[in-house]
Amino acid sequence: MTLTLRSISEEVPQSPAMDLEKQLALAAAFVRRHSIASIYHAGSGHPGGAMSCADLLACLFGAELNFWPSGIDDPHRDRFVLSKGHAAPALYAVGAHYGFCDAKAALRLRKLGSPFQGHPHVLDLPWVETSTGSLGQGLSVALGMAMGLRMQRSAARVYTLLGDGELQEGEVWEAAMCAAHHELDNLCVLIDYNKLQSDNRNDLIMRLEPLAAKWRAFDWAIAEIDGHDIPQILSTLRRAGATQNRPSVIIAHTVKGKGVSYMENVPSWHGSVKLTREQAEDALLSLGASRNEIKEFLDVDGG
Amino acid sequence: MSMVAEAPALIGTSGDSLREAFGKALSNLADEFPKLVVLDADIAGGTGVHHFRTSHPSRLLQFGIAEQNMMAAAGGLAAVGLLPVVTTFAVFCLRAVEQARLSLAYSRRNAKIVASHPGLDVGPDGGSAQALEDLAAFRAIPGMTVISPADPIEMALATRAILEFEGPVYMRTGRSAAKRLFGDDHQFAIGRGRIIRQGTDVTLVACGVEVARALEAAETLAQESVSARVVNMATIKPIDVELLASCAVDTGAIVTAEDHNIYGGLGSAVAETLAITRPCPVEFVGVKDVFGASGEPEELANLYGLTAPHIVRAAHRAIARKQRISGRRKNFR
Ligand SMILES: Cc1ncc(C[n+]2csc(CCOP(=O)(O)OP(=O)(O)O)c2C)c(N)n1
Ligand SMILES: [Mg+2]
To answer: Which pTM value belongs to this model?
Structure first.
């Protein structure tokens, strides 16, 4: 069968006529569907945390970052670092949607010889900016970028997405203290607060609360939002951009597995799971994909 | 539409992986070692420690995703008389090497580090997750014992042995389903290598997943009328000096095989030892100072040169070098 994955993303008219919020909702839907498909083809991967951050990624890439495929070498581009590197399928999908990579190629997730490794690798895909996968390091790298850009008088901003479980790493708080000390207002952290981590709920593994108070104590500008509410994400990102003399953190309350009914809030769908054909189909149906789209995503060869 | 409700299939937990064997052994040994406590950083489902969590929940200490804190806390637990076993993936042990150095080894604490998911055997998670440096890093810490068992039976025996042993230990388990190589009468002692196949032309010295590949290589070599001895060198530090020296004397050629960088691990330990005891040609099978990538473990072993045919070719090289040396010796006479 002919593959029209590209057309799925092209279904999203990029014309200003179309309401931005609708475009972003379609982008997020594509991110979720593509992630499910790539994890299905890979036979392993982390679906839960890819679903929870899809709306945040869509808003960043679709409306916030000054970063386009034509400008991946531009020294003044905004930077995005996926600190929770295991959500790589979602990053590859949003990249595919916005033209940083090919959607069909990105279905070869985790395969030998594919640049779409289980965790992002900057030497394979320069637009991922830095290699991640070991939790807690991405924020430090983003901090270094923010410092360096400011030293070079660049107006570029740096964004990074962290998992909530990831916040248990001490390095995150070293970076948090450092960013506030250096008044890095060009740094913005997004937290995918889905309340779950690898083995269980955050509050059973290692309590994070009171989370906003922790960031406040570290002297960051804080916003707490619904991480699936696109207008709210957009307006909060805009406000974060205007923050002066302080780094900003957006605590985005999300649902792990969001959009796939059987995955939502179920810890065992964290990873590294093998999706059966039936599970993948059910997930795509749950995400509103048509029969045709499901076939296109799951029957693609070269997987 | 049908709703799929079953739990997802966890990758790699099926079969008798070394990590599962370790987790079961820990749980079986817990009553015998009342001071034993197990430290986890939100990854018990992956390290095999979920067995211990089920059997002895009050002795499983949860640290969250915070390996450095966990490592140094083990020093504290040991300081007050407990027997801590730190568990996480090998690559995240690297993150806490300095804590292991100061708070465990330098303070000579009786604490154990058990690392799952070592080497290319990690597979599709990719280069960022494949620890190819852990044996080197932990071997370089004074007083640290370094172990890498080869099959589930040996894993269980090694688990007991490290609990009985006094002092800091770093031990690898493994992610993939592991072949049974040894019988129920198998023996394990820290610091002792074992000849698991006799041979006279070359010795294949292996650890971890490479032991099965070395046995396979010896089989191929036998068909080519080359008699290969196979040594399971489950303890990398302290290495079995006498056994290595006798293998050098008996076979005159050595091949090392490990799922690790060729620098700093088993191969280096063997070469360092032979250099000051019985120098002989040594060939190294391992990852050639590069990072890994995503792929299935067997595909990666093939791509990076860790399979039985790679060991066979290395054996031929070692034997050829031995013959050139003995040829030269003859010319001198
Ligand atoms: C330093 C480090 N320790 C452990 C892991 C293994 N690991 C991968 S994902 C994960 C749980 C992450 O939870 P969270 O940050 O909440 O991510 P999300 O829920 O968004 O998937 C763990 C423990 C890791 N990748 N890095
Ligand atoms: Mg989480």
So the answer is: 0.94
| ipTM associated with this complex | 0.91
Question: Which positions in chain B touch A169 (Cβ < 8 Å)?
Answer: 65-66
Domain boundaries, chain A: 8-299
Tell me the pLDDT tens digit for each residue of B174-220: 999 999 999 999 999 999 999 999 999 999 999 999 999 999 999 99
Clarify whether B67 is annotated catalytic.
yes
* Closest by Cβ to B42, choosing from A113, A198, A286: A198
Which residues surround ligand 1 with Cβ inside 6 Å?
Answer: A 46, 48-49, 52, 84, 86, 133-136, 163-166, 192, 194, 196-198, 256, 270; B 42-43, 65, 67, 92, 95
Is there a contact between A262 and B2 if contact means CB atoms under 8 Å apart?
no
Cα(A203) to ligand 1 centroid in Å equals 15
How many residues appear in chain B? 333
Q: Which of residues 71-100 of A touch B (CB under 8 A)?
A: 85
The residue with tokens 């960031």 is A215
Sequence spans of domains, chain B: 14-179, 194-331
Q: How confident is the model at residue B329 (pLDDT cuts 50, 70, 90)?
A: confident
Helix then strand then coil, % of chain B, to nearest 5: 45, 20, 35
CA distance B82 to B3: 47
Interchain pair B65, A43: CB under 8 A: no
Which among B67, B133, B154, B258 is annotated as catalytic? B67
A110: closest CA among A43, A34, A33? A43
Q: B194-331 maps to which CATH number?
A: 3.40.50.920
d(CA B76, CA B103): 8
User: What is chain A's pLDDT, residue by residue, as a tens digit (303 residues)?
Assistant: 233 454 344 454 555 546 999 999 999 999 999 999 999 999 999 999 999 999 999 999 999 999 999 999 999 999 999 999 999 999 999 999 999 999 999 999 999 999 999 999 999 999 999 999 999 999 999 999 999 999 999 999 999 999 999 999 999 999 999 999 999 999 999 999 999 999 999 999 999 999 999 999 999 999 999 999 999 999 999 999 999 999 999 999 999 999 999 999 999 999 878 999 999 999 999 999 999 999 999 998 754
pLDDT digits (tens, 9 = 90+) for A246-284: 999 999 999 999 999 999 999 999 987 899 999 999 999
Where do the H-state alpha helices sit in chain B?
Answer: 18-29, 44-47, 50-55, 67-79, 90-94, 97-99, 134-139, 152-164, 210-223, 241-251, 266-276, 297-304, 308-332
- Backbone φ, ψ for residue B293 (5° rounding): -160, 175
Q: Determine the residue type at A16.
A: P
| Interface contact flag, B125 A276, Cβ < 8 Å | no
Which residues on adjacent β-strands are paired with residue B9?
A274
Q: Which fold has domain B14-179?
A: Rossmann fold (3.40.50)
- Residues in CB range of B225: below 8 A, 6 or more apart: none
Architecture of the CATH domain A8-299: 3-Layer(aba) Sandwich (3.40)
User: Which of B65, B299, B303 comes nearest A165 by C-beta?
Assistant: B65
In chain A, residues with a C-beta closer than 8 Å to the C-beta of B129 are 118-119, 133-134
**Chain A closest-CA separation from residue B38 CA (Å):** 15
Judge whether B14-179 and B194-331 match in fold: yes
Candidate from A35, A84, A203 with most ligand 1 atoms within 8 A of CB, to mutate: A84
CA angle A179, A130, A40 (to 5 degrees): 120
Judged by CB atoms closer than 8 Å, whether chains meet at A262 and B45 is answered as no
